[in-house]
């Protein structure tokens, strides 16, 4: 059952193994009301990320939540997908051959506009992929901004990057879109690698997914096992970080992710630093804060939240999602 005060959210994503867990968390926690899911090209092509979103929702038995495909490339330049991390399908690992519903006939930006304007209360946008769709919404439909409670995005870092030395994948994929969002004047929360690298899917976590004894728990374990193999091969990580669910967790329970207000800018022209997020934590510039930046994570509380949501989603399989 959704709580009567459940917060309305829209998840914009590019599944992606960690996006899959983010969707399950958003759908499985009763404190959120998932109005819709939109997809963007990023971890894989738009066609694949959209199909992956539909597959995850179908596996969790979530119906009645519209899914719309959005932008198939960044605002400028060409798309480079993360096939080395997420595989050819974008969700390599388990068998996800399940019937999926039709995708919405409208563009993701238009669906988001309709859902926001049709909501009785302000909507939180949770973005776990490149910010292309969100930027086009803000640029093309400024009238919706009064109905946006907050934009919470996974992206950037206060430290090093994972795609270039100082650039995180989602921001590097579309720096211009991130710049538009960060300059929007809306309440923004940035969940960067400096915090998500603490949310590690250890062997114990994977074993806990297995121990659920359910199809969805098993799929999560297989997803994380594959994710672990690619993160070890590409980055040398012993355990893979699950970035995207941390953004959802922050919306559900702000105490899990500690943030500080800080000025954040995106480097657009640096030959070696394009896509870097410049976070002025120590106020060395005269710029005013434009984002709440994640700086710490309660790791145990995060995993308890996610495990409970996966169990809830498993229990809801075959039933419509409460709306």
Automatic annotation (TrEMBL):
<dbReference type="InterPro" id="IPR036452">
    <property type="entry name" value="Ribo_hydro-like"/>
</dbReference>
<dbReference type="InterPro" id="IPR001910">
    <property type="entry name" value="Inosine/uridine_hydrolase_dom"/>
</dbReference>
<protein>
    <submittedName>
        <fullName>Purine nucleosidase/pyrimidine-specific ribonucleoside hydrolase</fullName>
    </submittedName>
</protein>
<dbReference type="GO" id="GO:0008477">
    <property type="term" value="F:purine nucleosidase activity"/>
</dbReference>
<dbReference type="InterPro" id="IPR023186">
    <property type="entry name" value="IUNH"/>
</dbReference>
<dbReference type="GO" id="GO:0005829">
    <property type="term" value="C:cytosol"/>
</dbReference>
<dbReference type="GO" id="GO:0006152">
    <property type="term" value="P:purine nucleoside catabolic process"/>
</dbReference>
<keyword id="KW-0326">Glycosidase</keyword>
<feature type="domain" description="Inosine/uridine-preferring nucleoside hydrolase">
    <location>
        <begin position="9"/>
        <end position="304"/>
    </location>
</feature>
<keyword id="KW-0378">Hydrolase</keyword>
<dbReference type="Pfam" id="PF01156">
    <property type="entry name" value="IU_nuc_hydro"/>
</dbReference>
């Amino acid at each position: 059952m959704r709580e009567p005060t459940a917060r309305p959210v829209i998840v914009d994503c590019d599944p992606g193994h960690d996006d899959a867990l983010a969707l399950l968390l958003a759908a499985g926690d009763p404190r959120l009301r998932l109005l819709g899911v939109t997809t963007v090209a990023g971890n894989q092509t738009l066609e694949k990320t959209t199909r992956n979103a539909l597959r995850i929702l179908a596996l969790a038995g979530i119906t009645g939540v519209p899914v719309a495909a959005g932008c198939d490339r960044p605002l400028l330049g060409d798309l480079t997908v993360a096939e080395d991390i997420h595989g050819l399908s974008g969700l390599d690992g388990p068998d996800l051959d399940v019937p999926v519903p039709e995708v919405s006939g409208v563009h993701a930006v238009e669906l988001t506009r309709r859902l926001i304007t049709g909501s009785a209360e302000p909507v939180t946008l949770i973005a776990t992929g490149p910010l292309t769709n969100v930027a086009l919404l803000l640029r093309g439909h400024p009238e919706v901004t009064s109905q946006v409670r907050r934009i919470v995005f996974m992206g950037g870092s206060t430290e090093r990057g994972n795609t270039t030395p100082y650039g995180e994948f989602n921001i590097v994929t579309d720096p211009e879109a991130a710049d538009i969002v960060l300059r929007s004047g809306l309440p923004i929360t940035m969940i960067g690698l400096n915090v998500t690298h603490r949310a590690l899917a250890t062997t114990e976590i994977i074993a806990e997914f297995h121990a659920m004894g359910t199809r969805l728990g098993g799929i999560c374990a297989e997803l994380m096992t594959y994710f672990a193999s690619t993160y070890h091969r590409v980055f040398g990580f012993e355990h893979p970080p699950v970035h995207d669910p941390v953004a959802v967790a922050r919306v559900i329970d702000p105490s899990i992710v500690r943030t500080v207000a800080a000025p954040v800018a995106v480097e657009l022209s640096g030959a070696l630093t394009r896509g870097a997020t410049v976070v002025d934590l120590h106020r060395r510039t005269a710029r005013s804060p434009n984002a709440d930046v994640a700086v710490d994570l309660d790791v145990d509380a995060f995993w308890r939240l996610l495990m409970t949501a996966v169990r809830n989603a498993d229990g809801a399989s075959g039933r419509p999602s409460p709306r």
